[in-house]
Amino acid sequence: MTAYDPCAHCEEVMQPFMDRVLTDAERAEAEAHLDECSYCRKRYRFEESLRVFVRQAVASEPMPVDLKRKLLDLRTPLQ
Amino acid sequence: MSETTREPDARRLAADARDRVRFEEDALALSDQVYRVARHLVGSREEAEDLMQETYARAFRSWRSFQPGTNLRAWLLRILTNLNIDRGRRQQRSPDMQPLEEGDYFLYNKLEAAGDGTTGEEQVVERLSQNDVVAALSEVPHDFRDVVVLVDIGDFTYADAAQILDIPIGTVMSRLHRGRRILKQAMAEAALGGGAA
To answer: Which of A26, A34, B145, B154 could be a cystine partner for B150, CB 3.0 to 4.6 Å?
Structure first.
């Protein structure tokens, strides 16, 4: 049997923790570990920055103006 | 037909037209957000543009099947993902073709190891470029990418993503978990070259 590794467990629950889908008890356990473990805390902060970065990186390409016009043209003509 | 029977018909038609116009305006107001998701569900801008036009054409035709008060953005994305599947744009990878995934800390560890000794979390993120992210996302197999795009870029809940893709919520969660790991591995490869894996 493998010994319990709190950092491996923290890594496992990191994404659900950030998605806010852990139970209160699981969340409290993760928070307590992050408070005391700088190794995991650094990685947690990185994951938070990464999510924002990914969202901004892919959102920076706006919808082409021509496409917007084509969508407007699909509207049902008024009688 | 008497004037009295014609009048309610005219009122009903006018109300119907108003509802339809309002629906079309509401759907068009969401088009930037729908496009942002569509753009990363398919491989190219051209495909995304075709898919958007097909989606809106279908939505405007079947507007009566939308239930007012429910999530219109999710309803539009449901049409879009169904069209994407119907038109055979998705080429599924067989399970043994899916990349080997690393743990959640993989990307941080790789970027930190490749760095110059500065380990601030934001400085580590700054080693990635926008192109790295876009290129990496296109490398994620479709089933996983759909969920990552809907939740992490489209801001949909697990439940919305499950409804849009017509899959159980547990499948959304497992695909999201694996999809994010695959994405991070692809970002490491994009940022640091082939030796990152």
So the answer is: B154
